[in-house]
User: Fold these one by one.
Assistant:
Number 1:
Amino acid sequence: MNLSIIIPLYNKRNSLRSCIQSVLNQTYKNFEIIIVDDGSTDGCQEIVKEFEDKEKKVVSKVIFLQEKFG
């Protein structure tokens, strides 16, 4: 069974790396991590890109909910 773990993200650079690493450290290994970034402006995308480059389980998508609902 595949499991998708969705991490919503907006300007949480300080805790993002430990959040992703915590999920990757789990004993259950049949999962993917989907990071949905709502247009962060604090450089979160750099951290996500690092994980995407070295972990096939990490996938990111940038959306701009604030423009749609703000």
Number 2:
Amino acid sequence: MRVRQLIVEDAKGRPRMVLGYLDAPGNVRRFGIRLDDPKGAERFGMAYMENGAMVMGFDAPPGTGDDRNRERINLVADEKGGAHIRFLDRRTSEVSRIYLDEQNRAWLSFSDFTQKPASIRRYGLPGEEVVRSQGPQ
């Protein structure tokens, strides 16, 4: 059997899983799997991006925050050999990240973009650092 896309439906005929190209306008071409809830909202996606990254994302249900971006957790192995886990809040702001930098050091960072200027604190073996953006005071 050879298919370009496989759609698995639930007992009521609703698409619940899509396997194949998951192209979205304005994004890098991707091939993977998407799982939808019974109402058709994406809740999980895993994809190989044509830029070389491998991405897994977990989405919150609609109506539980800013619906423009319902992602809450992303797990990425990027095209340059790096990696990160990103946590987004209900406003779609990145509040925490665990990542591997260019020198192969692991960092845990916490962000608060409600402050002016925004504040980012990160922890790693080299120590603790506080980074403040140069935004409006």
Number 3:
Amino acid sequence: MRVLDLLTKEHALFRRLLDRLEIDLAHDEERARTELDDGLKTLLPALDRHLDIDDLVFKHPPDAPYDDGEPLAEIEEEHRAISSLREEILYALELSSEECPFERLRSLTVLLIDNLEERMKMEEARLWPLYKNALSRSLDRTLSNHLEKRVKVLEKEIERGIAAISMPF
């Protein structure tokens, strides 16, 4: 499987999980808090794996002569913002409902969802085209084998998480 196909599959998995979190946000507070807790505990480790995969893929410079490094710099900035938000959510999940009101957890989750959706769109529109030719050669085969294993692990984790949070309450 080609690297860009694997990245497309990975983004589709994340979109499913983000859609599930948005559905969970619509429930009453008690149910939403429980499901968000489970969903975020699936998303956050998966997000770490995704960032590792991105680092493997995008650390290789693209062939595009017009690349000025701006998309990579933008991705790095978004990684920092998402990592900071991730840490804030992890901290919020450790707190009691009195220490972290549900509205705070809800707003952090919405912000994370929005940031991740925007980041995936930017990667797909601006970064992937720069790498398309570079990833179609031998680098693609080497990375594909390595990434395919990582994406399969990620897929199992996300599927397990979605199944857990989709159970009737």
